[in-house]
Amino acid sequence: MNSLAPAVLSVHDLTRTYDTAAGGLTVLRGVNLDVRPGEIVGLIGPSGSGKSSLLHAAGLLEHPTSGEVRIDGEAVGGLPERARTHIRLARIGFVYQFHHLLPEFDARDNVALPLRIAGHALGAARARAEELLVALGLADRLTHQPSQLSGGERQRVAVARALANRPRLLLADEPTGNLDPATSQTVFEALHDLAKKSGVAALIATHNMELAGHMDRVFALKDGHLEERPAESQAY
Ligand SMILES: Nc1ncnc2c1ncn2[C@@H]1O[C@H](COP(=O)(O)OP(=O)(O)OP(=O)(O)O)[C@@H](O)[C@H]1O
Fold first, then answer.
1. What does the longest C-alpha to C-alpha distance in the chain come to?
2. Whose CA is nearest to atom 29 of ligand 1?
3. Is the pLDDT of residue 236 over 80?
4. Which has the least CB within 10 A, 15, 64, 68, 103?
């Protein structure tokens, strides 16, 4: 981690209130957070505490109710939707609990897809996809379709896809939540290793305290606020 580098993700005094039939439901009540290049930050908290709400605001998928999100120092809240979409595609990678891979594409072409959308030629996109899949231990699974992969392999493909565009920011919402403990560990180690090598700033929501222990900093969402947890960081 480069603690002097400016934050890639900067969240300032963020609030989020949902309109529900029963009235306003406030889940984030003034959240502040900076994530710097090369840093892996964990986000923990019970179900319903607002982890996904924070990731959705940070990933420009939703607007917060108030407060500010900055990506590489740029305030993104007031930008037109087209500019927000461009930032999302070019600078942010997402990993979800479920892989969301396209079933008719093989592993390599799933990873190449964001590069194709960004305008890269097929050959270059596939070469980058292969490089990532090899780094994630999937050299002999390049042409397997998602249905021909194990759950852990699919998540590793999803990690490769998220990093394909060399994003500045990686957001992961329980990336191992659907896997058994041993597979979780393997997928997380692969993600951790690649995130560190690429220098991406990563914010990872997890229920898995064992994995959280390997992150650089860990914050718990409690009553709508972030509380930093004492570092027990164990490096891989
Ligand atoms: N679109 C919405 N409309 C109304 N309420 C919502 C909406 N989205 C989320 N919520 C509520 O906001 C709260 C926080 O949800 P969120 O998904 O951010 O929590 P979480 O910490 O990610 O939970 P989990 O660990 O179960 O994924 C929950 O109580 C949820 O029901």
1. 53
2. 48
3. no
4. 103
